[in-house]
Amino acid sequence: MFLKKLCRSNFFGNSRRSFSLVTKKAYNFTAQGLNKNNEIINVDLSSFIGQKYCCLLFYPLNYTFVCPTEIIEFNKHIKDFENKNVELLGISVDSVYSHLAWKNMPIEKGGIGNVEFTLVSDINKDISKNYNVLYDNSFALRGLFIIDKNGCVRHQTVNDLPIVEKFVQSTGKRDKKHSNQLPNR
């Protein structure tokens, strides 16, 4: 149903811009974010260029069914990102105040706890729009972008919402079954 609606919608608009951003210069943005210490900060993507890789993790909305699972899973690997000199930024169209409330909500009630990476507020939807993940001018599709130290997009994945949910479920099952066989664990 969702995929049919997406295919019928004007998601891609009348624009001729390429959907793939791989090999292109990353869209720079400055936005409010909530850091690991729950402080509201200004996040400027260009401040990481020349210093480290960036991983932009777009997710639809705070308080949705799969988002806490996804955010918590990424947070479990935050040290791996740091050891590889990668800045992880979670991005949604929610406000920084919504991010703070979500972090303060107990995990067993749908919260995410005190995640150790910055959650960026794309409340005006410009970031999502420029990374081609904004759906129906309302929220971001799930997307993952890797940006190198030169500011070039090296990887892009954008997923339909139900597909990601199934992937997260299957990955969890695989991890439980084969956890001792996975590399880098």
Automatic annotation (TrEMBL):
Which molecular-function annotation in GO is an example for this chain?
thioredoxin peroxidase activity
Cellular component GO terms held in the UniProt record: cytosol
One GO-annotated biological process of the protein: response to oxidative stress
Species the sequence originates in: Plasmodium falciparum UGT5.1
Which keywords fit this entry according to its UniProt record? Answer: Oxidoreductase
Q: Which PROSITE patterns match?
A: THIOREDOXIN_2
**What are the residue boundaries of the Thioredoxin domain, all occurrences included?**
20-173
Family annotation (InterPro entries): AhpC/TSA, Peroxiredoxin, Thioredoxin-like_sf, Thioredoxin_domain
For whether the record's keyword set contains Ribonucleoprotein, the answer is: no
Provide the protein name: Thioredoxin domain-containing protein
